[in-house]
Amino acid sequence: MTLSRVPDALIRHPLPCVRCKYDLLGLEARGTCPECGASILNSLAARLDLDSDSFLPMHGVRRVATTIFTAAIGLAGGSCVFLALLAQVASHAFESDGFTHAVPVLRGIAVGCTLLGFLAFIAVLPWIRHREFIRAHILGAGGFAMWYAAAIQPPSVIIATYAALPAAMVLLAVTPLLRDLGPRSRAYRSARATAQRIDGLLLSTGLAGGASATAELLASTTNSDDIATVLRLTAGASATLSLIGFCYLLLNSIWILRAAFRPLLTIEQAFGVEASATNPTIRK
Questions:
Q1: Is residue 269 pLDDT above 60, yes or no?
Q2: What is the pLDDT of residues 207-230, one digit of tens each?
Q3: Residue 53 lies in a domain
Q4: pLDDT for 93 beyond 80
Q5: 32 has which bridge partners?
Q6: What is the pLDDT at residue 110?
């Protein structure tokens, strides 16, 4: 459809402004938002389904979105392996029963979330003979299986270090899925709010595991205690950043899930079915 050929291209469906979320219903598509001045065409482009022949049917899109959401839960919950180690260290340092009781709770969360993530890549993600989906199945299911094996073990530095590997595998599995479905959430949030660099998460996760492994190696083979301490602090800071990133990924996945279960507008919905039926200048 070409808007220049439509004399009264009015928005006939509730449409939030992409910038300020003002309802643009009843306004001309070629105008601007009366609240913030953003172009209505930009808001329409973010909400309009211009690709009716998508690679996946709608139920497949919803299953992929559910997989992303469940994987984000697994990433955030699986990080409780690291928190369980911190709670165990704190319980010995402060002799607090609160930290002692928190250890099995955190371990249980890690076990449950990693098992949930594993089941998502096995049973929820569509089995399609496509390279990205095959890789997602292998990396996602394999990563969560390895993470589950680590989560059922007693907390230790070695286990927390090892958990960085399956976390990186899961991130690699969800990256193409996020690239495909991530833009859908921009119908409800700004592009800046939805932006998240997965390579940054991979870097912090890899740095946490690498620094921790190097610190343990130096501590066991040399007397470089100062260097090992710096590496442990680096690993702890990187693991904390990864945990924050996983939680933000979970937030983004909620909006992706909402967008998948609330389909994008069609041209008929945006401009009104009666408009396309009575005005011969409107063509898809």
A1: no
A2: 888 888 888 788 777 776 778 788
A3: no
A4: no
A5: 39
A6: 93
Query: What is the spatial distance between Cα 91 and Cα 113, in angstroms, rounded to a whole number?
Result: 24
Instruction: Quote the domain boundaries for residue 36.
Output: 1-48+265-284
CA dihedral 216, 220, 222, 227 (to 10 degrees): 20
Element (H, E) at 23: none
What is the pTM (predicted TM-score) of this model? 0.71
Give the pLDDT mean for 48-65.
61
The total number of structural domains that make up the chain:
2
260 and 181 Cβ atoms separated by less than 8 Å: yes
Token pair for 7: 């004399």
* Nearest alpha carbon to residue 242 among 210, 193, 202, 275: 202
Maximal CA-CA distance, the chain: 84
Q: What pLDDT is recorded for position 273?
A: 45
Same domain, 222 and 183: yes
- Cα dist. 225→71, 122, 191, 263 in Å? 37, 44, 45, 57
Q: Where are the alpha helices (DSSP H) in 96-224?
A: 97-119, 131-151, 157-162, 164-181, 191-194, 198-221
Q: Which of 266, 265, 219, 278 is nearest to 16 (CA)?
A: 265
Q: Is the pLDDT of residue 157 over 70?
A: yes
Residues 121 and 32 both lie in one domain:
no
Structure tokens at 196: 């998240």
Round to whole Å and give the CA distance between 163 and 166: 6
Least confident span in 124-133, 206-215, 220-229, 270-279 = 270-279
Buried b (16+ CB within 10 A) or exposed e, 89-105: ebbeeeeeeebeebbee
Q: Buried b / exposed e across 218-230, counting CB within 10 Å, b at 16+?
A: bbeeeeeeeebee
| Bridge partners, residue 265, by sequence | 48
What the block records as the tokens of 101 is 């009781």
Q: Contact at 8 Å (CB) between 173 and 71?
A: yes
